[in-house]
């Protein structure tokens, strides 16, 4: 595992923000969001950054111009993105497909990609300059639903940064949109996967019986001791886990838990070490939350091209004293016991009856697995991105306390998982130390096993 501390500063020169509207007239209509889109916890802005090297074949092309033109064409198909969110009766969100457009910024920076070094992973340097927060543009209602900035670099590469109103799409839906943008930028007349709205498919119907059930992930936790995380004093870093690191963690697992996935073993590790680092009260309940992509669980399935949110949240829960004092296997077993076969339609019913409702956030920590979502495959004509993912931890889902798993290849060519995280400064040092200690323990166990293996007899 390796952290990152490399500082880097540079200057970004931006043109005035502009609104990109659909290239052709589009329907003017009101489109209600689904009850899954409408979760209180998704009423926020998410951010993604994609970094591209220069391509000799595209030397005479301006990436900002190429993407700007493709965006106008793609919005003909994805015209709800050019509208504005409104709030209807009982807080129900809907899109006014007004065609007002999405925000677009062209910029250039006096920096080359090789100057980033290991900084080409979160926390991304100067993200406020690479994704400029246009004043009065970040509201959930009556604001642009997308903001895109394309920043050209001195080496011929560029950085594509996007801000998305999360109520419109989850990561899978966003990748579908960006993949279509890449296809049009490369010359296609339409995206290969045509977008499908049909948010009614995940809306509760009063005419049908509701399979309502209680989910602790969406319950309210009484905050008896005040917030643990001081969100105004956060330190950002990222940790890189190689296959060797994951193997070291697996050596600490008893035989009956060996069927665990990489997600489960890494999440248990992060949950336990973070709790130890924060030093909360021993009786405090520390929820570990993660979103589940429920697309494959629906029968009948959603139509191909559906780009709304299809997320439900599940949680493992433990007290501080149990997480800190019991073996690593205890946290892993709790994570493995969580059922991921969520009934998304029942969650939709729950949202419709109890709006507004925010899933448990007091003392909670959330991790979203983006290793297989496909963001690193988006190609605007310059090839695949060198980095694709969030600019830093602590944004989206549970505000201030969210991390992500992202695919990553370091400068040595090693593939693995990078995880951005935000913690108070004192807690961050303890967190990294706990992770290092756990990994070292697993590697010591490996050495002991290898030392005890009998030598092979010579023939």
Task: State the main characteristics.
24% helix; 459 residues
Task: Give a short synopsis of this structure.
The chain is of the alpha+beta class.
Low-confidence stretches: 207-214, 355-359, 448-459
- Topology as H/E string? EEEEHEEEHEEHEHHEEHHHEEEEH
Oligomeric category: single chain
Strand content: 15-25%
Number of helices: 9
Instruction: Specify the biggest β-sheet.
Output: 7 strands, mixed
**Shape from CA axes?**
globular
What is the terminal-to-terminal distance? 41 Å
Helix content: 10-25%
**What is the residue-mean pLDDT, rounded to a whole number?**
86
**Helical/strand content category:** alpha+beta
Radius of gyration: 23 Å
Q: Count the beta strands.
A: 16
What is the fold's blueprint, element by element?
Elements: E1 12-14, E2 18-20, E3 30-32, E4 45-52, H1 63-74, E5 84-87, E6 93-96, E7 102-109, H2 127-130, E8 146-153, E9 158-165, H3 171-185, E10 234-242, H4 243-250, H5 262-278, E11 285-293, E12 311-319, H6 320-325, H7 328-337, H8 344-353, E13 365-369, E14 387-389, E15 402-409, E16 415-424, H9 425-452
Parallel strand pairs: 7-8, 11-13, 13-15
Antiparallel strand pairs: 1-7, 2-7, 3-6, 4-9, 4-14, 5-6, 8-9, 10-16, 11-12, 15-16
